[in-house]
């Protein structure tokens, strides 16, 4: 990541545009933090200071508040300040941005519920000072209600501080593309992408309400201070468009470019598509001398793709004319090209566990020991085959002892209809032979379940079992002995609901014990570092915590950790440190292995906005990698899986 990432201790106070050269292409003041946690603490600090200043002046403090995953840690910090530092909310009046429509307050998906659970229930705010748009109005009441909401904000003196998240459509509040800059609180129709993003919380797309009541863009712009939060890779693209693009109602957040006191507080990954981070050499003098070879490779790959040339085809003038002359200060284009070409070429190997009796000086993996013990950590029961099925297949075929550790049961993602099918089969098999009343009870539960009902333990276990046996199907197909499968059922996930617990001691201990037992030479883990909320990141945090505890054990000196990426994205070329090619047959075998995960086929519950099935995504991603490398001038392969080494 670029050196422009600023220190965590920095203030998020608004700075005049263009104060620093690195912000040359940027039209909104932004502060980049290494992680969402420290960023949230800084934001909470600004809010707390405002509340205290207003208190000292004997005035109310009017806050505009957001829901969703982005502000949760800010609220946690405010609660901590209330409990430990005596921060009082007695002078605070809040206006929430939005609420789904229709929506009952008590529903766990309601923003009313969210706000009380995540903030209001834990601080001393007066209930009469809390304002959240209502989801229970009659349609004919909505218009007057919205005017009244606006009026109430004005009566309170206007919003002092507005907290925002941003949707992938560029919405703020629920002001979707097309929203007017002067819009006020009103009823709106949700965009498909927004509904897809909410599908997880609602247990499927079809359950997400189509409408919402939201404050308008104009309402937000009237706030005296605006802070927008964004974390993780899924926000990177919209953040770059909003900060660097033209103002357009197609991306309503760009209207914030016209607000004089707005700051975007973002983490490194959400900032990764900004020009200053993605192609810093375009911004000003970029000092490659302090950079490692990987950073130089990034620039060379960028140059190739910009000019549609191969690495070995780049000429001196290509570097000079595209802001990369600095790379040729102490070498020639010819030598640099060869150096970077070799670097990528050497990462390609058909021997992910190391090639026996071969010189390994330039290979990604060690030759010794020839037979390695390997643990593949799979956050969900199908990530092993979706994300690294080809490599998995090769490791087994090349004689390594491959263990697979399924970190979570994956129960959340099995549809009730799918579960019902299994109970009905069991029921019909046993009918007349034994007492089936229990199965009938489960069938009734599944048939009568309502949206948002917590899962019964029986049904939760049944769903986990369905996924467990799908795993056996896939791993037997790859010739892995059943005893090498480890179903960890990490407790953080076992909530019988969509919402999970944070990772804890019990989870880490389970991972630690397995590593201690297997003593692996290789660990593969899902390296979705970019996803701050999802299960993959939590599972990775658990592995990192376990590695930290084990790192001084003798056998760990021999253990290399490789990170693969999930079904959503791939490492960038310069980041790839081991690239495993697949033949056409291996691609088909991988497809077959993924097919065993039947409960995740045909419109599985948590597909995200990408409607392709997992096997299609995996195949396209792997063939894209192969094509991308071929365009850079490397040999043409059918498909490739990529890994990055993690040092601990
Ligand atoms: C929430 C809201 C939305 C969210 C946005 C991002 O009150 O108005 O604009 O801020 O959809 O949601 P998360 O933070 O969940 O990514």
Automatic annotation (TrEMBL):
Transmembrane segments: none annotated. Gene3D superfamilies: 3.40.50.1360, LmbE-like. Its EC number is 3.5.99.6. GO terms for biological process: carbohydrate metabolic process; N-acetylglucosamine catabolic process. Residues 35-263 form the Glucosamine/galactosamine-6-phosphate isomerase domain. Pfam families: Glucosamine_iso (PF01182), PIG-L (PF02585). This is Glucosamine-6-phosphate deaminase. NCBIfam families: nagB (TIGR00502), PRK02122.1 (NF002557). Coiled coil: none annotated. It is an enzyme of class 3 (hydrolase). SUPFAM superfamilies: LmbE-like, NagB/RpiA/CoA transferase-like. It comes from Capnocytophaga canis. One of its GO terms (molecular function) is glucosamine-6-phosphate deaminase activity. It comes from the Bacteria.
């Amino acid at each position: 990541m670029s050196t422009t990432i600023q220190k965590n201790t920095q203030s998020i106070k608004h700075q005049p545009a263009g104060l620093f050269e690195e912000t040359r292409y940027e039209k909104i003041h932004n502060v980049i933090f290494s992680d969402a946690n420290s960023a949230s603490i800084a934001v909470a600090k600004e809010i707390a200071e405002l509340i205290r200043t207003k208190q000292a002046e004997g005035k109310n403090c009017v806050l505009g508040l957001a829901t969703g995953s982005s502000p949760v840690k800010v609220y946690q910090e405010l609660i901590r300040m209330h409990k430990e530092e005596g921060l009082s909310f007695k002078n605070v009046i809040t206006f929430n941005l939005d609420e789904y429509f229709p929506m009952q307050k008590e529903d766990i998906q309601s923003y009313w519920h969210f706000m009380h659970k995540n903030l209001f229930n834990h601080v001393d705010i007066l209930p009469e000072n809390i304002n959240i748009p209502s989801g229970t109005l009659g349609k004919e009441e909505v218009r007057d209600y919205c005017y009244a909401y606006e009026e109430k904000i004005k009566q309170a003196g206007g919003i002092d501080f507005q907290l925002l998240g941003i949707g992938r459509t560029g919405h703020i509040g629920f002001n979707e593309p097309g929203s007017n800059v002067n819009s006020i609180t009103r009823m709106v129709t949700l965009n498909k992408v927004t509904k897809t993003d909410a599908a997880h919380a609602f247990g499927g797309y079809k359950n997400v309400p189509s409408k919402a009541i939201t404050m308008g863009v104009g309402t937000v712009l009237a706030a005296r201070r605006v802070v927008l939060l964004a974390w993780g890779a899924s926000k990177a693209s919209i953040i770059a468009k909003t900060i660097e693009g033209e103002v357009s109602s197609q991306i309503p957040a760009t209207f914030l470019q016209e607000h004089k006191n707005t700051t975007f507080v973002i983490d490194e990954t959400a900032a990764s598509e900004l020009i200053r981070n993605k192609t810093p050499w375009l911004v000003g003098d970029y000092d490659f001398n302090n950079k490692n070879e990987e950073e130089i490779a990034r620039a060379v790959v960028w140059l190739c793709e910009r000019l549609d040339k191969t690495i070995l085809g780049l000429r001196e003038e290509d570097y000079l004319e595209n802001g990369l002359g600095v790379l040729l200060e102490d070498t020639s284009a010819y030598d640099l090209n060869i150096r970077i070409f070799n670097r990528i070429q050497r990462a390609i190997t058909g021997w992910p566990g190391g090639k026996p009796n071969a010189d390994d000086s330039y290979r990604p993996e060690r030759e010794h020991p020839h037979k390695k013990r390997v643990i593949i950590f799979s956050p969900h029961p199908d990530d092993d085959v979706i994300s690294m099925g080809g490599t998995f297949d090769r490791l087994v075929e090349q004689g390594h002892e491959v263990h697979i550790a399924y970190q979570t049961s994956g129960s959340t993602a099995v549809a009730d209809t799918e579960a019902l099918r299994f109970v009905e089969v069991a029921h019909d098999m046993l009918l007349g032979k034994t007492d089936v009343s229990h199965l009938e009870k489960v069938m009734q539960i599944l048939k009568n379940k309502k949206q948002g009902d917590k899962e019964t333990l029986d049904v939760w276990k049944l769903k986990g079992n369905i996924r467990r046996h799908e795993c056996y199907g896939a791993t037997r197909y790859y010739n892995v002995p059943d005893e090498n499968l480890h179903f960890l059922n990490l407790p953080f996930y076992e909530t019988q609901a969509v919402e999970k617990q944070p990772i804890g001691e019990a989870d880490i201990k389970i991972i630690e014990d397995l590593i201690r037992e297997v003593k692996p030479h290789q660990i593969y883990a899902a390296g979705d570092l970019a996803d701050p909320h999802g299960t993959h990141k939590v599972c990775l945090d658990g592995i990192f915590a376990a590695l930290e505890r084990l790192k001084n054990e003798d056998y760990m000196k021999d253990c290399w950790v490789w990170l693969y990426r999930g079904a959503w994205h791939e490492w960038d070329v310069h980041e790839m440190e081991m690239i495993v090619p697949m033949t056409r047959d291996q691609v088909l075998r991988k497809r077959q292995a993924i097919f065993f995960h039947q409960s995740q086929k045909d419109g599985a519950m948590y597909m995200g906005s990408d409607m392709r099935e997992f096997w299609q995504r995996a195949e396209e991603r792997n063939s894209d990698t192969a094509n991308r490398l071929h365009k850079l001038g490397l040999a043409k392969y059918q498909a490739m899986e990529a890994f990055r080494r993690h040092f601990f």
